[in-house]
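Lab notebook: predicted structure, single chain.

Context: the supervisor wants predicted structures on file for every construct in the current expression panel, including those that have not yet been purified. This is the next one on the list. No modifications to the sequence; it matches the entry in the shared construct table.
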Amino acid sequence: MKNSKKTILITLIPAALTLLFITQVLFPAIQNYNDLRNKFIETKNTYKETQIRVEQLQNNKKILTEIAELNNQVTDFDIQIPSEFEDEYFLVDLGKFSINTATKIIALDSKKEKPFEITNPNDDQNKTSQKTKHRRKKQEEQPVYPLTIYEKPFEIKTLGHYNKIINFVSCLENYQRKFIINGVSAEISKNDEANPNPKIELKIEGSTFKAVENLPEPEPEKTE
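Prediction complete. Output recorded below exactly as produced.
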């Protein structure tokens, strides 16, 4: 009987030790593993959220930089392309350029204003007429833009020595208002052909511009 009890006791000891190991060591280890796993998942999600926020900040910084560059580009837009042509101011400035460069304006002519068409210089000029018509039709279907640019062509004839003429052209190129030179032609003045340093008659073809705001048409009133 005593031997049987000893045998049972000896058999129960490993089972008790195993149970003790499971309850005191294995279960806490599993719990710690689950806690670490949850913390790892949480940390991973936090990292992803942080990475997304960093990318958003970088994109926002890029957008802010682009906006700042755009603002710098259009800072003096109202001066370069005003809402009216104001030819009287342009004529006064031409007179100042002539005086400052010691040249003489001998003729000045302007043409009727017209809408300024902005085209992509990379467009293929050798497209068929059918594609051209299709492109024009597509352009006509485009929405109305906030601004319409108009140009007024000018033809300016000025007289002076070569270096003075160059200075006059430089004044036009650096004019605070937008003035695009479309073409120039020069010839020696007929009254100065015998002079070793003759004066030059320069014809300048160019345009000034204005920007007109396209106000939305008022909606018709509903009648009941």
